[in-house]
Amino acid sequence: MTTTQTATRQTLSLPHMLWLLLRQQPWRYAASELLPLSFFLAGRLAFSLLLQVFFNRLQQQSGPDLALWLLPFSFILAALARAILGSLGNRALVTALFKTTQTLRHNILKRILERPGARPLPGSTGEAISGFRDDIEIFAQLFSRLLNVFALTCFTSIALVIMLHTSVRITLFVFLPLLCVVIVAQSMKKRLEKYRVASRAATAEVTGAIGEIFGSVQAIQVAGAEERVTEHFSHLNKRRHDAMVQDSVLSAALNSLFGNTVGIGIGAILILAAIARGSEHFSVGDIALFISFLGNITNFVQSIGTLLAQVTQTRVSLTRLRALLQGAPDTALVAPAELYLQHPLPQITLPAKYFASELHILQAHNLSYHYPDTGRGITGINLEIKGNTLTVITGRMGSGKTTLLRTLLGLLPAEAGAEITWNGVKVAEPAIFFVPPHCAYTPQVPHFFSDTLRENILLGLPASEEQLYGAIQNAVMEEDVIQLEAGLETVVGVKGVKLSGGQAQRSAAARMLVRPAQLLVFDDLSSALDVATEARLWERLFSEEQHTSLVVSHRRAILQRADQVIVLKEGYIEACGRLEEVLDQSSEMRYLWLKDEIE
């Protein structure tokens, strides 16, 4: 169990999380948004005040005034300065928002990879993709909106003082639309949240269905289920369409209401201004000042309404992202991450055996795990593996062989009371410890990416050609590589569809062997291999150097070679020892040995 699993869950408020993200690059955000907007709004204030002076002097002047007519040129210069600052700020903003979103994605992916590999996601793949793509983008949008509202608030506060000084009555009426916006936004908060949750869930269902369909094309064709699958996909799209329409229509309606409310307020203000001219001193310059301010106040009112709605949407997204954290504190989501935006990526180094302590003895005590849905699994397993030996785990189908491997390696969380030691030292976090150079693992059904065979074996590892071909040869894959259309550069397709079962298993073995490790773990590697190929594989694997290997197999060739055979039955160890010993002690082993094909 990892440290983050055992840590006390720390839930942070949304403002606190935004603040922690902002602190990671405060100067970039300041340069990207606050400074350009501050210059812009300060210029806008100056522009409005100059506009007031211009019209007042224009009303009072009877003859030419050079200073008066130079004012428009100052407006043009101010506009050019704002454009330049805005361009520079936009570049900084794009970088800042990109780093924020990628930090969130980095931290979530890191958390998923820390979890036991057999159950890395709390929901469907589609929900996870939707979270990575959409929910994190909501954070970026909220950041941009918050910075915009902050600058507009500063401007509006100063403008309010000036407007109150000019006319208290008209100024108070200007801010009536703002009150309406706040009331409407708060009243629609729950419904907006409900529609946003529904639209996100529907999108996740569609995304997940696409992945499942692409991964099961052959099975769909064999079953002749194309029409039924298409109908199901259309049904999911219809549900998504309905949910997205509800969400979009409500958001658009609120935005329209905000804009129209402000527009009605602007018309009323102009009427009041005309009335006020007859009852109090309200010059043409004052009217120009108010009209000049109204555009920014309109933006302020609309931004406040949009911000309130966006905060609600972001809380929904945060709830979904917390699910992907799977019990980790909120600080794990907003922790600083090195993204290498300006520096070269670090070199991936080939693990060396001597970096890890040489394996003399691996022990597991009281190792148990039961699947929550069935209650089946393994119970109270005690095993001991000595260095430079071959241990084979065998048993009937469903006896717990794969479960034992996954629990030992931390891919499934062991139940309380289990203890694993490496040379007598307790392994606190098996999922993190049992990786190269300590351990290398080949599962029964290996995963492949739609990339070249070379990349699927190396996975970014900078191994030399000699090391690569050595691993391929030890995995008895060299003849298959020659027969492939482009050799190692052959694109194997989604899930390695272009490879046969035996080629896939041996390619996975080559992937493991190119990463030197103290302990090699194979889960039924030879299940898709013929007897001759299997014999060559084990001969090559054990001929060059000593290995400590843990193998799940039912084949006689590897059982006869084993230093230790562990017989599992219904999740318990029935017998353990050399082949001759377990055959003598265990009726289960005798049954397995005598069967023509062990299950």
UniProtKB/TrEMBL annotation:
Q: Where does the signal peptide begin and end?
A: none
**Keywords, in A-Z order:** ATP-binding, Membrane, Nucleotide-binding, Transmembrane, Transmembrane helix
Domain ABC transporter residues, every copy: 362-595
* Keyword Transmembrane in annotation: yes
| Membrane topology, from the record | Multi-pass membrane protein
Q: Which InterPro entries match?
A: AAA+_ATPase (IPR003593), ABC1_TM_dom (IPR011527), ABC1_TM_sf (IPR036640), ABC_transporter-like_ATP-bd (IPR003439), P-loop_NTPase (IPR027417), Type_1_exporter (IPR039421)
Principal cellular location given in the protein's record: membrane
Q: Provide the protein's localization.
A: Cell membrane
The domain of life is Bacteria
Q: Where do the ABC transmembrane type-1 domain residues begin and end?
A: 45-313
Please give the start and end residues of each transmembrane region.
34-54, 66-85, 146-164, 170-188, 249-275, 287-312
Q: Which CDD domains match?
A: ABC_6TM_exporters, ABCC_MRP_Like
Which PANTHER family would you find in this protein's record?
A: ABC TRANSPORTER, ATP-BINDING CASSETTE SUB-FAMILY B
Q: What is this protein called?
A: HlyB/MsbA family ABC transporter
